[in-house]
Amino acid sequence: MRLRDARQAVPAGLVAVYPAMHPNGQQPDELFAADDPFRYVPLNYAGSVEALRDPVAFPGMGSMQGFPRSFVVVCENDFLRPSVERFVTQLQDAGVPVERWFEPDAMHGHLNDPSHPEAVRTLAGLAEWIGAGSDR
């Protein structure tokens, strides 16, 4: 976002693997959920409630215009899935070419064990996406 906003060259592609794109991962259209046990993680990251609105900290809070083509991993059993799904929609709405890679039965952090079948599938899909981009 900083490169785009400074009118500098942006990367050729964005890989977002189960990302935290909104401060409220469960309800991305709401800023802060008082009953969410994870609510202090984004608050600690951003530093203040006001900073939760900063798209540099949480890209889903800003415009997706000018984002590079993207590969976004969505895990079926991820507590951040609503935010990730919303981010994919935001990219699509902005006309950004995006591949939504849905990994059934996978949990947040599944790539921590690259030998796990879900991780193997995700990494193969990512490698294919990167390879396809090198042809452009």
Verbal overview:
By secondary structure, the protein is α/β, with parallel strands linked by helices. It has a single domain (2-134), classed as Alpha/Beta hydrolase fold, catalytic domain (Rossmann fold, 3-Layer(aba) Sandwich), CATH 3.40.50. Helix content is 31%, strand content 18%. The chain contains four helices and three strands. The protein has helices at residues 2-5, 40-46, 81-93, 117-134; strands spanning 13-17, 69-77, 98-107. It has a three-stranded parallel sheet, sandwiched between helices. 26% of the residues are buried.
In short:
With 136 residues, the chain is an alpha/beta fold. It is built from 4 helices and 3 strands.
CATH architecture call = 3-Layer(aba) Sandwich
How many individual domains?
1
- What series of H and E elements makes up the topology? HEHEHEH
CATH overall fold name: Rossmann fold
Strand neighbour order, sheet with most strands = 1-2-3
Cα-atom Rg, whole angstroms?
15 Å
Classify the secondary structure makeup into a structural class.
Answer: alpha/beta
Helix amount: 25-40%
Average predicted confidence as pLDDT: 92
CATH superfamily: Alpha/Beta hydrolase fold, catalytic domain
Low-confidence spans: pLDDT under 50, at least 5 residues? Answer: none
As a percent range, the share of strand residues is: 15-25%
CATH class: Alpha Beta
Count of DSSP H/I helices: 4
